UniProtKB/TrEMBL annotation, chains A, B:
UniProt keyword terms in alphabetical order: Kinase, Transferase
Gene Ontology molecular functions: polyphosphate kinase activity
Name of the featured protein: Polyphosphate:nucleotide phosphotransferase, PPK2 family
Biased composition (Basic and acidic residues): 1-14
Family annotation (SUPFAM superfamilies): P-loop containing nucleoside triphosphate hydrolases
InterPro entries: P-loop_NTPase, Polyphosphate_phosphotransfera, PPK2-rel_1, PPK2-related
Domain Polyphosphate kinase-2-related span(s) in chain numbering: 39-257
Length: 283, 283
């Protein structure tokens, strides 16, 4: 499906390993909007083909799946990514879950309880719009997480992701990286556009006021939970066209790596064709 | 959103009330492929807009949702409908569930147990690819359902759907109606096309051999479970272009009827705009 020689070009460029790229930059791939849109268009076909193969593999008894974890500050474009990138593939193959503030019922369970319930089935691409990482970010920034508890959560989460990898789920963790200047523009746009007002939440400004604390919390998360089996990627997200292109490519490279294949029929094709020849039209 | 004067034109024409339309016919709407494709294209925009409003309403605390139930013989195009019709809207707003042969674990529960777990959340469009109706169809055709038990299931299912309606879920039940001749063509196509072979199941021929029994079982289901709050619609499905157009229109009419609205902000827009003005860029 994807060419072998560039099979991890975007992943290599965007894997987090130290300083994050500038939110307005384009460290790999198209640097201008028209080219990025055209490339996203053709990426759609590759993504669809790979998704269909993975899905077929699942129907044929395969156990593999992909889980895209989207994290980022408010307005960083998690929803837009789902719409523009996952919207390119068959809805049958996508399982989307958003994790908001835990409900009272959810809070009575371990924080991974509600996460486990939303894992993709074999053959599916799962998408987490926020995730178990919120269970480090929010309590940490609110000062409700001791250092010992925070370290325990890193360990629990890496163990959980190892378990997923062992079970056949490839976890792709993407941080959508926007600048505070761009966030301000987007928050304003949500307020001045009547049909966008439902997306605005006064709490977003409260979170924004803790921007440096979130940056620190994210940095530590990247350091402690980037593993060989589930590394973190940073996607510069001030430009929506770049964000969409980059996430599509990260997904394509990840899926192509799995080399999903249509399953071999577990029946005799010729025998079935012969049976069909003898089949009449029911009265 | 949708014009008031044709707000239930397609539903009126396709609502089951006696003899089913011919599987190759086009009882309402476009009668030729090019026109149907063009109309589906513009339907996509209306469907997307309605879906976004419903979703926003859900975010704003609304409880309403829509559940599209797809039934039909093998190859009738349930999967194709999901891909071509639900593929037109934002994946965030769609919850897809396929119901295959119940697993051993599922069989230990009441047949509605696994169904309830897949209901759409407020604001979502749920899609059932097969459904609780399989729990009448399959055992009945296999001779495993007494008449008394069958009647009990009709009653349980209409009560269940009443419960859904009361909770704010509008159930749209669609029978994709294909002819045995068209099914034969599609089964052959699945066998001769290597990348379609995974969709073929030798059991499909076994089911096909009971075609008249399935027809009878469906007829009785339509008679006993078509209610004012959850009527059945038959979509002629020998032509994929007609099927896609018709299901899209049924969904649009159903959504338009709900008149979903963007929620009023539960915050003071001007006050928030003023706050944004005073917000600096975090250091």
């Amino acid at each position: 499906m994807a060419k072998k020689d560039d099979g991890s070009r975007v992943r290599d460029a965007l894997r987090i390993g130290g300083k994050l790229p500038d939110p307005g930059s384009a460290p790999v791939g198209p640097g201008k909007k028209p080219k990025a849109l055209a490339k996203l268009d053709s990426a759609g076909e590759r993504l669809s083909a790979l998704q269909e193969s993975l899905y077929a593999e699942g129907v044929g008894g395969g156990s593999r799946s992909v889980l895209l974890v989207l994290q980022g500050m408010d307005t960083s474009g998690k929803g837009g990514t789902v719409s523009h990138v996952l919207g390119l593939v068959d809805p049958m193959g996508v399982r989307y879950a958003a994790f908001k503030k835990p409900t009272a019922a959810e809070q009575r369970h371990h924080y991974l309880w509600r996460i486990r319930k939303q894992l993709p089935a074999p053959g599916q691409i799962g998408v987490f719009d926020r995730s178990h990482y919120e269970d480090i970010l929010v309590p940490r920034v609110s000062g409700l997480l001791t250092d010992a508890e925070r370290r325990r959560r890193y360990a629990e989460i890496t163990a959980f992701e190892q378990e997923l990898a062992d079970a056949g789920t490839t976890v792709l963790k993407v941080f959508l990286h926007i600048s505070p200047e761009e966030q301000l523009k987007r928050l304003k746009a949500r307020l001045v556009t009547p049909e966008k007002r439902w997306k605005y939440n006064p709490g977003d400004l409260e979170a924004r006021s803790h921007w440096p604390a979130y940056e620190k919390a994210y940095t530590d998360i990247f350091e402690h939970t980037s593993t060989a089996y589930a590394p973190w990627y940073a996607v510069p997200a001030d430009h929506k066209w770049y964000r969409n292109w980059a996430v599509a490519e990260l997904l394509i490279e990840t899926l192509a790596d799995l080399r999903p294949r249509f399953p071999e029929p577990d029946y005799d094709v010729d025998a079935e064709l012969a049976k069909l020849k003898g089949v009449g039209v029911p009265a």
